[in-house]
Amino acid sequence: IVFVASPNNPSGQSVPLDELRRLLDALSSVNTGILILDEAYGEFSSQPSAVKLIEEYPTRLVVTRTMSKAFAFAGGRLGYLIAAPAVTDAMLLVRLPYHLSSLTQAAARAALRHADDTLGSVAKLIAERERIAEALIRMGFRVIPSDANFVLFGEFSDAPATWQRYLDEGILIRDVGIPGYLRATTGLAEENDALLEASARIGAP
Q1: Which ranges in the chain are annotated with CATH 3.90.1150.10?
Q2: Are 151 and 141 in contact (CB under 8 A)?
Q3: 117-202 maps to which CATH number?
Q4: What is the pLDDT of residue 186?
Q5: Were 183 and a residue from 79, 174, 178, 193 both cysteine, which residue would form a disulfide, CB within 3.0 to 4.6 Å?
Q6: How far apart are CA 138 and CA 110, in angstroms?
Q7: What is the mean pLDDT of each run of 10 residues along the chain (205 residues)?
Q8: 0.70 cut: is pTM over it?
């Protein structure tokens, strides 16, 4: 079993479909293995979903997604997968009973009824993400291109110390353990403005 996340966390980068196809071809050539592709941040991505490859590789590809990101339903702990019928039928044979509460199911149905409104906010978050990235680049930071709802930026000589400087400015971002880099999640416009103002005061490395 091969696990790939696209967009990736914590970099936010997507794996192009051509690269996924090469990986799937390699699995097919040895007639074994399955690729589990995590598209948790897929709604934020500029790349097409790998779901379109399932018909081409029905026994080799499973795409997983979640409602915790674009649908802002993290508390529901609700994920789902897309796969060929033969794969989903096999999984139904071994799934746990009572794995999803009726309350979670009802909340998920409500979220889906308002999907247009919820997913409409995704476009705003993408625009804000790009605004943050462009502003940080202009300030002299290195920004990793992102297809998720966050931006990974640096290159800091001491990321933990810089994280503390942001915290002292009232800005909580994440040190995800990549030397020299910090990660900022896209928020409301005013929150993003505060991040950029703090970044200007802290200064690029």
Answers
A1: 117-202
A2: no
A3: 3.90.1150.10
A4: 95
A5: 174
A6: 41
A7: 95 96 96 94 92 96 87 72 94 81 81 77 92 98 96 96 97 96 96 98 89
A8: yes
